Amino acid sequence: MNTQPIASHFINGAYIEDIQGQPIDVIYPATGDVIARVYSATPDIIQRAIESAIQAQIAWSSMSGTERGRILLRAASIIRQRNDELSVLETYDTGKPLSETLYADATSAADCLEYFGGLAGTITGEHIPLADGNWAYTRREPLGLCVGIGAWNYPTQISCWKAAPALACGNAMIFKPSETTPLCALKIAEIFIEAGLPAGLYNVVQGLGDVGAALVNDPRVNKVSLTGSVPTGRKVYAAAASQMKQVTMELGGKSPLIIFDDANLENAVSGAILANFYSTGQICSNGTRVFVQQGILKAFLARLVDRLDQAIVGDPQNLKTTFGPMVSKRQLDIVLNYIEKGKAEGARLVTGGKAISGPGYYLQPTIFCDVTDEMTIAKEEVFGPLMSVLTFDNETEVITRANATEFGLAAGVFTADISRAHRMVNAIKAGTCFINSYNDAPVEAPFGGFNMSGVGRENSKAAVAHYTQIKSVFVRMGDVDAPF
Ligand code: NDP
Predict the structure, then answer these.
(1) pLDDT tens digit string along 69-93?
(2) How far is CA 465 from the centre of its chain?
(3) 149 lines ligand 1 (CB under 6 A)
């Protein structure tokens, strides 16, 4: 596959290049080879992206929701037809195995476009009857120009999770992918044009944090949706707040996964694997603090290690591979550093713990047990294949410990006692909870975090509130009474 894009940016319906920008090499995580080069957006590129988006949004917002939705549905259908090609590109961009990307990336983007394409025609205001025959009505109006800034773990999915609701609600979007994974969003931009989206409504600009910051600080931008880390979220939220802009913040987590001794062990082990090793552990909602009830610790660890032995680590383009490399050398080093901290602070390494020699950024799936709440690996987001196993005795204790975090993105509980399961999720402070499951993210359900894990929600009907503003219109049917 030729992974070099025609040009770095996609603005006003066409590729555009400006080699005055800082070059960014795109590296294939499985080999370390440079597979493409893009250039960071210059002020001129940013200006063009903003101007064309503002211009295009005027006509777009006056179309009916059904007309807008039809275009999104067409884009979804093209994405489904090209799933193979888009999945291979996602694998080059991120290193995630094709056995995942074929099912979890372009398909998730298409789901989201179908959902919001269908919803677009239903976005309405309400009629509010008042005294004396007067009445008011509300209009749900678009915000205008939205900026989407993505993380590197799900570049195709993130671009559509932001674009689909934004466009359905009548906005334009400028999307800045992570510099680590700049390729996939450009393909989405091409597909939108092919589907009939008017030029300028979905522009992609490349760049580092400074390009994101320039977009966030531009007074013509009305809303910012960021998927990224908490430190970046703090900066972006503060910049947006200074101009009173709307935000959606999808940030990091350190989510608890709680396994009771009455749980189906095999399912609990599967849940723990999904919660820690899918996408080589690079998922924001991962349940990386695995609390196991004391009595089943031995059996749980034994089965977990057995199952991990079955992971097929290797070439992500090989369909048999189930565990790929980390996204970058930088991320590999971050995780290796956490592994060293885990050892130094007294956690017991059960398996893994080492980088795999050879080309690419491979790391063994790693499990620590005897982890305590104070250890760094139990407190900080690692964003890699490192599972921390902690033990607990009872429900009250584990709820307190599960909630003792600044984050609040997700949580999971495995138990056969359904009353207990609901008691637990009621008490847990997290935006997304799983009962006898982990990491499902259907577009129909809201996704987002409590506390430091975020602001606002993506997906579902809830996202409409974050991409529209309400206008109230008062209508008087009789004469106007004034004091003089
Ligand atoms: P970063 O926070 O480093 O970057 C996120 C994006 O923000 C990148 O595109 C980055 O650009 C950009 N950026 C950086 N600084 C600024 C700034 N000052 N103003 C505007 N934009 C800026 O996150 P990562 O890419 O490393 O992704 C990993 C993080 O994302 C993890 O913490 C993870 O938990 C979180 N995440 C959250 C998800 C959720 O839905 N809650 C889902 C997936 C990931 P550049 O990369 O070019 O520096």
Answers:
(1) 999 999 999 999 999 999 999 999 9
(2) 18
(3) yes
